[in-house]
Amino acid sequence: MKNKLRLKYQELRTSLSLEEIEEKSLEIANKLLELPLWEHEFYHLFLTISEKKEIDTEPILHILHGKDKNIVISKSDFSNNTLTNFLLTDTTVIKKNKWNIPEPTGGIEIPASKIDVVFVPLLAFDEKGHRVGYGKGFYDKFLAECKKEVIKVGVSLFEAEKAIPGLLSSDIALDFCITPRKVYSFNK
């Protein structure tokens, strides 16, 4: 069931031009400014896998830099599907791994418990804040390690599905999701 949604949204992404992705990414970044989440200190941001036509997170990065926030990025461990988080600094070296994920090669490690806001990558989401990612569970494991009050913000090039079937107890819902046209708020 989730696999059908994964395929549908991967195909939709593939159909977008790079100009459309840039335009939608900028609209999403501008909509983020409407959210009440800018008084925090540590913001986790994923870096774009351009080969998968993901949202371009560069405009969000610029907003965070402009607001003088601590930006945290991850390195993926595919042996156990976990993320190790590092502070993004002027000296951070970023290289693509064999899955084309841009990652820090090392640096100052930041525990998940310190992170206040997480921008969550996704393929699809529903009107209740449930999301479908690539299916490895990296972010559900990572979010489970974060403090209870961490703010989870999905970013999507497309609007919400009515409902996502086949949810697991380990699936962690979003607090917000931003699309080019709308800010979704999921107050539980």
TrEMBL record:
Entry keyword set: ATP-binding, Ligase, Magnesium, Metal-binding, Nucleotide-binding
Keyword Magnesium found: yes
Cofactor section: Mg(2+)
Recorded superkingdom: Bacteria
EC code: 6.3.3.2
One term of GO molecular function: 5-formyltetrahydrofolate cyclo-ligase activity
The family this protein is said to belong to: Belongs to the 5-formyltetrahydrofolate cyclo-ligase family.
Record NCBIfam families: MTHFS_bact (TIGR02727)
Protein name: 5-formyltetrahydrofolate cyclo-ligase
